[in-house]
UniProtKB/TrEMBL annotation:
Residues 181-274 form the Cytochrome c domain. InterPro entries: Cyt_c-like_dom, Cyt_c-like_dom_sf, Cytochrome_c-type_DH. It comes from Microvirga thermotolerans. It holds the Pfam family Cytochrome_CBB3. Coiled coil: none annotated. This is C-type cytochrome. One of its GO terms (molecular function) is metal ion binding. Keywords: Heme, Iron, Metal-binding, Signal. The keyword Signal applies. The keyword ATP-binding does not apply.
Length: 341
């Protein structure tokens, strides 16, 4: 609750809830009351050194292709391997609930990262997206572009108290199916709902502006200029939740346009398409029991085939992993008698 009085914020939240009820009488209300979300106002920053750094950081996030992309004039600055912008996935420049917000992160790093098997800094987390989502190479921690993006991300955390947990992180929760998600059904959803913007070939739509503009009107979903196979967006739960909460573009998680089934199936279709490959993915998750059930690449410790790790259902995999973890720690699962008793 920042830069708005509590009263005004509550009135706005009530109004929003009222509109929700009015516009979609059949849609269920959010499970718990959703605290009002207020993003700090970048436009009101003074035009001083800090204000300019934060603005530069936002530009780098909304037009990454123009500053760090594979076609920028200075070869030394070609850190990203594709022409995406961070904000193609971190929607509204990282300020959208369930649009992978970059909000309130300042005090959550360094944090343990299972993929790396160690604690990582916020710079290293940005570089995980640089090398996977952007299919590129890491930016040095002291590169001016890294400092600017971090200044912007810190700015988005302004007013968040240490330890405060905000709602809306990630790409949106979605009830899981008890069957594998189906790429063939998803292809039909794609043709019906996505192709008009992302194209039948998934290649997106370049801007029709002069050639100096290197970006997309609509980003590609697969093919050589997309995120690589090690990206978070290539995991079914992430992309299905993101699509359900945000697509077609402009959708709010309060008014999803796809049913959960459609979201899972269309996500299954998208992750089945060709995309760049990242080297050495088998080195991710040095502790295989910490590997999320929907990681689409091996090795796996749970005995389930790759196909089920890609398309689900994930419940049985999680249960097997929990059993293996309990065996490893020597502890019997809760409620069960201990060995030898
Ligand atoms: C109205 C046009 C439109 C429609 C329809 C649409 N999208 Fe998008 N999509 C976009 C735009 C634009 C973005 C980038 C948003 C931004 O940069 O703010 C995007 C971003 C994405 C992203 C993340 C970025 C990336 O490159 O991977 C995914 C995944 C995605 N869309 C999937 C889908 C799926 C699946 C559907 C169909 C259910 C769909 N979209 C329908 C316009 C659309
Ligand atoms: C293709 C989509 C995509 C693009 C492009 C992308 N990211 Fe991400 N990013 C994600 C997803 C999805 C996550 C959530 C974690 C996961 O599942 O891997 C994430 C997580 C993060 C996080 C950690 C957030 C948290 O809550 O802990 C940061 C920081 C981040 N990205 C920064 C960036 C920056 C900076 C760029 C551009 C240089 C970028 N990302 C480009 C998809 C993307």
């Amino acid at each position: 609750m920042r830069r708005a009085t509590r009263g005004a914020a509550c009135a706005a939240a009530l109004l929003l809830q009222g509109l929700t009820a009015f516009a979609q009488p059949s849609s269920p209300p959010p499970a718990a009351p959703d605290p009002f979300w207020n993003v700090p106002d970048l436009g009101s920053l003074p035009d001083d050194e800090h204000g300019r750094l934060v603005r530069r950081g936002r530009d780098l996030i909304t037009a990454t292709y123009a500053h760090l992309g594979p076609n920028v004039p200075d070869p030394a600055k070609r850190y990203a391997g594709n022409n995406l912008a961070c904000s193609n996935c971190h929607l509204d420049a990282g300020a959208k609930k369930f649009g992978n917000p970059l909000w309130g992160l300042k005090d959550r790093f360094p944090q343990y990262d299972a993929e790396a098997g160690r604690s990582i800094s916020l710079e290293q987390r940005v570089n995980a997206c640089m090398t996977r989502s952007m299919n590129g190479r890491p930016l040095p921690a002291d590169a001016p572009e890294m400092r600017a993006m971090l200044a912007y991300i810190d700015f988005l955390s302004e007013g968040v108290k240490p330890g405060e947990i905000l709602t809306g992180y990630g790409s949106g929760p979605l009830a899981e199916l008890d069957r594998p998600a189906d790429p063939a059904r998803g292809a039909a959803v794609y043709r019906r709902t996505c192709a008009v913007c992302h194209g039948t070939d998934g290649a997106g739509l370049r801007r029709s502006l002069p050639a100096t503009d290197l970006g997309y009107m609509v980003p590609p979903l697969w093919g050589p200029d997309s995120f690589n196979d090690g990206a978070g967006m290539n995991r079914l739960t992430t992309i299905a939740g993101f699509v359900h909460a945000n697509m077609p573009n402009g959708t709010s998680y309060l008014f999803p346009r796809l049913s959960p089934e459609e979201a899972w199936d269309v996500a299954a279709f998208v992750v089945s398409q060709p995309r760049p490959r990242k080297a050495d993915l088998d080195r991710d998750f040095p502790d295989l029991l910490e590997k999320p059930a929907d990681t689409p690449y091996g090795p796996y410790a749970d005995g389930f085939p790759r196909e089920q790790h890609v398309y689900g259902p994930f419940g049985p995999i999680r249960a097997a992993i929990a059993r293996l973890k309990a065996e490893r720690s020597g502890a019997a699962p809760e409620g069960a008698p201990k060995a030898g008793q």
